[in-house]
Amino acid sequence: MAKELAKARPARRHRGLVVFLTGLSGSGKSTVARGLTDALRESGERTVTLLDGDVVRRELSAGLGYSKADRDLNVRRIGWVAAEIARHRGVAICCPIAPYAAARATAREMALTAGAGFVLVHVATPLEVCEQRDRKGLYARARAGLLTGMTGIDDPYEVPTDADVVLDTTDVSVPEAVEAVLQHLTETGWVELKIPSS
Amino acid sequence: MAKELAKARPARRHRGLVVFLTGLSGSGKSTVARGLTDALRESGERTVTLLDGDVVRRELSAGLGYSKADRDLNVRRIGWVAAEIARHRGVAICCPIAPYAAARATAREMALTAGAGFVLVHVATPLEVCEQRDRKGLYARARAGLLTGMTGIDDPYEVPTDADVVLDTTDVSVPEAVEAVLQHLTETGWVELKIPSS
User: Fold this and answer.
1) Hey, of B59, B61, B72, B94, which one would you mutate to test binding to chain A, going by the most A CBs within 10 A of its CB?
2) Which of A119, A139, A195, B80 is such that its CA lies 20 to 30 A from the CA of B175?
3) What ipTM does the predicted assembly reach?
């Protein structure tokens, strides 16, 4: 029965896929997501939608804040759109902070229900490194008490126990991090990339 | 040049498509949209996402109201998701009231920018008929002054001048209305359906 089911499904590289990057602000999620998007688009093999912070805030979640309820709604909305894209055999790459395990699990479930794959990438760059980078100045403002609800400072981040890939961008370049994800996707059959030898 | 461009593109039935039904509450939009979705799904030729009112309110637009700004945001959000689905060669069928021409034009533009088609269906059932049906009791409440911002009563509906199909469901059965849309899609090459002879 399981065999028949496997037989009836197209190969993974012809099925939809959601790549879901989670991690603290400044961990490198968006940068890796952009690199991954570019690599997959350049390969020409798959159509890709990048649901990064800018797009999501503009097109999907204008008006939502940073309470637990609003964060959960934001992640659910991203996960739902990603799953619909994957239902049509597209690749959706999303990179919300997504601090709560239950909301991430819902996103995974929605993708699987749509007949697609779901790959959870935990960008596990430590808080100290993220805070040192502080590209948006958010950590400084949170430490100064000018900003509340900052994940890692006064708001929780539930570390994933179900990540398919764990990346720490402390000492890893962006292309190396992107390649690590691509390698996982290739090894698990989701993409078939000829990675150029450098 | 135009010829080369046309040549470079896949046939319409292999490209994404947004079918956008607009009309008053009670006009029959959702019913036709559901019938169309079922017919396309049964044909097995295309993958289809139906963005009907329930799904949209639950997954995309929770918290939005009925002001012009919120209606425009709702239609933009639906149009954006529909265009992303169509970017991956899927078919998105949506049926918001969408009373404002500019918001509908934006939805069309987003679909075309994504390389997809856009078919505007105006479900032009007259207000009198919609009000007589009044399936949700909204017209009665609006007439009684218990509900404000009801399209057609105290809120505007800008009649489309750019509809690809115009349907009036007053004297037409649901299967007939669905067939009219399917016929347009078939004639214009967006789908290739063997419509069963009855």
Assistant:
1) B59
2) B80
3) 0.89
